[in-house]
Amino acid sequence: MPQIELPDGPGEMTARMWSLRPALGAAVQAFGQAVQAGSTLPLRELEAARMRIAHINGCLPCSEARPEEMAELGIDEAFYADVDDPARRGRYSQREALAIGFAERFAAGKASFDAAFWQDLTSAFTPGEIVELSTCVAKWLAIGRINAVLDMELSCPITIPQRGAAR
């Protein structure tokens, strides 16, 4: 049950929510589409970070969303379940584990980043990749948090574009 009164009518709760502030809804949609369309990081790295944020936000649709090419990418259900357990981070590549750690720290705030983490991150990712990862994590955290806080998450309009295993 949403925490705010929504306009009556057809459509998902989130669409009706954004109809309360159409300009903001359009901006959120444009931002989300731009981030998704401009993403060049490997999908496994993005999925690891996305799932960590989904679990932090408690967003059920995001937690359950999977790319169509899971098997092609070597992703199984344990890949998604293990993002929350630092003891299981050895199953991920260095960059995937860093993406998970970045997502956690980003959600916790600036003070959770230390020099050692930045050293590891900057040795594995280019500056442009860090900007991209930051933007993706910001999108998932912000939009997912809006949906979770307002109890809109059951209608979260998540899509995961098919990109192929090569990325």
Question: Key terms for this structure?
Answer:
9 helices; 60% helix; mainly alpha; 167 residues; single chain
How would you describe this protein?
By secondary structure, the chain is mainly alpha-helical. It is 60% helix and 0% strand. The protein contains 9 helices and no strands. Helix 7 packs across helix 8. It is globular, with a radius of gyration of 16 Å. The model has no long low-confidence stretch (mean pLDDT 89).
**Helix content percent band:** 55-70%
Low-confidence stretches: none
What's the pLDDT, averaged over the residues?
89
Helices and strands: which structural class? mainly alpha
Topology (elements, then pairings):
Layout: H1 13-18, H2 22-38, H3 43-57, H4 60-64, H5 70-73, H6 77-81, H7 94-108, H8 115-124, H9 127-149
Helix pairs in contact: 2-9, 3-7, 3-9, 7-8, 7-9
In short:
With 167 residues, this protein is mainly alpha-helical. It has nine helices and no strands.
